[in-house]
């Protein structure tokens, strides 16, 4: 009987110990830049309330970004972004679900910078595409900083650019990820 | 320990083992994002109920973004039924130039100058509450507008004692509007216009009217709009009429064009609500356009 109870307790502990391997943020920075040399003004925006969750055990990494949370220099550009390009009422969130391919090589308990190769799927504007990119994981004082820069071809996500401004908006947006994740204790 | 007890213990152990593992197992399969999702949608103000801050003539429930200025050029041509003699009214034009400023998400001010009666006008528009979604959502925008107009023409009768106040009229409005869907927006606009001085003793100083306005989006950049004011009092048969405007909003990126047909000439609340002297009957209408160009005066992004 005693052995059984110990076993049960052990199993229980194992189950709850899982959560210790997760890191998250709700204030991650994700920005994009679709400026071309012919753009009359910079076409860029930043979202400072991006959500990112990382499971250091499995290497799963997921991002969620509210399209209406992108801040622009110009209110009119923000309006056009939400109304005409991203159609934020119809497609409020952009989500990335991926896995760190070389997760085994990352030591989450030791401070340092590790290159990370991520493979997964990006869902934006209702379209899902495979997305593979390289980034950096920087571990410092128990926090994980995630950074990456990658391109996204807007036509892949059926984001149309009207003929009139075709040379003023880049066909490929440069996306920059800069998130600092803290341990998830839940 | 008999066989029965053993069996039940095994069952209990098996159950506990499985349930102890369950949270871990579940979390493996379900989304990581769900772990940090508190289920709360952020509070967001519903915007773009109209493409512009005016439906056509009247104020819309929409507000300018803080730090922006709207430069508006308004044209009303002559009556269409004048025919080829006046090129269907295009030979004549009445104008209003206006500057509107977005101060906060709920506060906007504006000034304008019309050729009709050389009138100056200004207003303050404030929304105690705006239509919003997410947590603490609210179904409609309620906005209040207070404005004044000043006639700057020479006094009609210079021999009598004229007061500056006689040139001034005021209006107050409540805008109750809702963006029902991405395509449809409707609003109701109870209004009172007060003239300090009216030309005839039979005319009321206070005119009450209710505005009915709305839009239906035809595409991403084109919308059909209408704007009607029903005068509750102060209408004189054969003299003045309820103003009705119907039009199309075209957004080109930098500009919003509002092309329309209307029986109103006036382009401020006093003028188009109480002084519309044409009627839709007999096509006594005018073609007109509003041109809106938004300038960013202050950077919106904080970093």
List the helices and strands and how they pair.
The complex is a heterodimer of chains A (186) and B (303).
Chain A: H1 2-17, E1 22-35, E2 44-55, E3 60-66, E4 70-72, H2 75-85, E5 93-100, E6 112-124, E7 127-140, E8 143-153, E9 169-183
Antiparallel strand pairs in A: 1-2, 1-9, 2-3, 2-4, 3-5, 5-6, 6-7, 7-8, 8-9
Chain B: H1 3-29, H2 32-36, E1 44-45, E2 68-79, E3 93-104, E4 107-114, E5 119-129, E6 132-133, E7 141-151, E8 168-179, E9 184-195, E10 206-217, E11 222-231, E12 244-251, E13 255-262, H3 269-274, E14 286-296
Antiparallel strand pairs in B: 1-6, 2-3, 2-14, 3-4, 4-5, 5-7, 7-8, 8-9, 9-10, 10-11, 11-12, 12-13, 13-14
Structural commentary:
Chain A has a single domain, classed as Lipocalin (Beta Barrel). Helix content of chain A is 15%, strand content 52%. Chain A is mainly beta and 186 residues long. Chain B has two domains: 34 residues; 253 residues, Porin (Beta Barrel), CATH 2.40.160. Chain B is 13% helix and 43% strand. Chain B has three helices and 14 strands. At the A-B interface, helix 1, strand 1, strand 2, strand 3 and helix 2 of A face helix 1 and helix 2 of B.
The amount of helix of chain B comes to 10-25%
Most extensive chain-chain interface:
A-B, 49 and 39 residues
- The helix tally of chain B amounts to 3
Strand content of chain B: 35-45%
Main structural class of chain A: mainly beta
Q: Determine the N-to-C terminus distance of chain B.
A: 72 Å
Portion of residues in helices of chain A? Answer: 10-25%
Content-based structural category of chain B: mainly beta
Give the beta-strand count of chain B: 14
What is the CATH level 1 assignment of the largest domain in chain B? Answer: Mainly Beta
Tell me the CATH superfamily of chain A. Answer: Lipid/polyisoprenoid-binding, YceI-like
**SSE string of chain B, helix = H, strand = E?**
HHEEEEEEEEEEEEEHE
Distance between the termini of chain A: 31 Å
Q: What's the domain count of chain A?
A: 1
Low-confidence stretches of chain B: 23-29
Instruction: Please state roughly what percent of the residues of chain A sit in beta strands, choosing from under 5%, 5-15%, 15-25%, 25-35%, 35-45% or over 45%.
Output: over 45%
Strand order of the largest sheet of chain B: 2-3-4-5-7-8-9-10-11-12-13-14
């Amino acid at each position: 009987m005693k052995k059984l109870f110990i076993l049960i307790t052990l199993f229980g502990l194992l189950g709850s110990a899982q959560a210790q391997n997760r890191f998250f943020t709700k204030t991650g920075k994700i920005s994009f830049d679709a400026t071309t040399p012919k753009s009359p003004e910079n076409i860029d925006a930043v979202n400072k309330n991006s959500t990112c969750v990382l499971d250091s055990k499995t290497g799963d990494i997921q991002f969620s970004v509210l399209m209406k949370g992108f801040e622009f220099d110009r209110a009119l550009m923000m309006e056009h972004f939400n109304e005409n390009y991203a159609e934020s009422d119809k497609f409020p969130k952009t989500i990335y679900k991926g896995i760190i391919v070389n997760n085994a090589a990352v030591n989450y308990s030791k401070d340092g910078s590790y290159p990370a190769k991520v493979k997964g799927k990006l869902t934006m504007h209702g379209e899902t595409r495979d997305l593979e990119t390289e980034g950096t994981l920087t571990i410092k004082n128990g926090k994980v900083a995630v950074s990456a820069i990658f391109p996204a071809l807007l036509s892949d996500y059926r984001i149309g650019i009207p003929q009139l401004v075709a040379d003023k908006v880049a066909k490929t947006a440069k996306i920059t990820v800069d998130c600092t994740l803290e341990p998830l204790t839940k | 320990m008999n066989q029965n007890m053993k069996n039940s213990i095994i069952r209990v152990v098996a159950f506990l083992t499985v349930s102890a593992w369950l949270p871990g197992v579940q979390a493996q399969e379900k989304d990581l994002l769900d772990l940090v999702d508190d289920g709360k949608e952020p509070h967001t103000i519903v915007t773009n109920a109209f493409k512009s801050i005016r439906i056509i003539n009247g104020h819309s429930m929409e507000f300018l973004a803080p730090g922006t200025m709207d430069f508006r050029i308004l044209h009303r041509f002559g009556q269409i039924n004048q025919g080829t003699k006046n090129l269907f009214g295009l030979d004549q034009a009445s104008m209003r130039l206006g500057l509107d400023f977005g101060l906060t998400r709920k506060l906007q001010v504006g000034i304008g100058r019309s050729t009709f009666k050389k009138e100056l006008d200004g207003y303050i528009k404030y929304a105690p509450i705006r239509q919003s979604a997410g947590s603490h959502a609210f179904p409609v925008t309620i906005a209040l507008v207070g404005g004044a107009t000043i006639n700057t023409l020479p006094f009609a009768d210079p021999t009598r004692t004229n007061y500056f106040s006689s040139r001034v009229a005021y209006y107050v409005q409540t805008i109750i509007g809702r963006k029902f869907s991405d395509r449809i927006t409707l609003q109701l606009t109870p209004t009172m216009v007060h003239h300090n001085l009216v030309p005839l003793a039979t005319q009321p100083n206070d005119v009450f009217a209710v505005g009915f306005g709305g839009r239906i989006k035809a595409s991403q950049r084109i919308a059909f709009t209408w704007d009607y004011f029903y005068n509750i009092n102060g209408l004189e048969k054969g003299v003045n009429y309820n103003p009705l405007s119907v039009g199309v909003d075209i957004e080109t990126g930098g500009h919003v064009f509002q092309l329309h047909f209307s029986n109103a000439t006036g382009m401020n609340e006093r003028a188009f609500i109480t002084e519309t002297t044409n009627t839709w009957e007999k096509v006594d209408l005018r073609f007109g356009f509003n041109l809106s160009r938004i300038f960013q005066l202050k950077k919106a992004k904080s970093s």
